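Quick one, probably user error.
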């Protein structure tokens, strides 16, 4: 799976979950996720995940699901660097 594919799927899963929340609760959810994920994760980072600009780290996916109280990301999306194809089509 390429990095671009992972970003697209992560973004879709996150946005699908956010669509189940009342719009007024989005900011509270974002705040809780940013606090739970700790150093280096800011609101801007969350919105980059939402827009599909970057992959969501597995530890952050776990925190999102813990706060959400449900499965948001399929387990096969919990990836490590070894799982990502960085060859960009090169042989």
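Nope, works fine. Designed sequence:
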């Amino acid at each position: 799976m390429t990095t671009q594919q992972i970003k697209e799927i992560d973004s879709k899963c996150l946005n699908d979950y956010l669509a189940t929340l009342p719009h007024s609760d989005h900011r509270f959810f974002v705040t809780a996720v940013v606090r739970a994920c700790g150093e280096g994760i800011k609101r801007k980072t969350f919105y980059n995940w939402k827009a599909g600009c970057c992959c969501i780290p597995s530890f952050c996916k776990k925190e999102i699901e813990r706060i959400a109280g449900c499965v948001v990301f399929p387990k096969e999306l919990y990836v490590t660097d070894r799982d990502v194809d960085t060859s960009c089509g090169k042989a």
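The CA atoms of residues 5 and 55 lie 9 Å apart.
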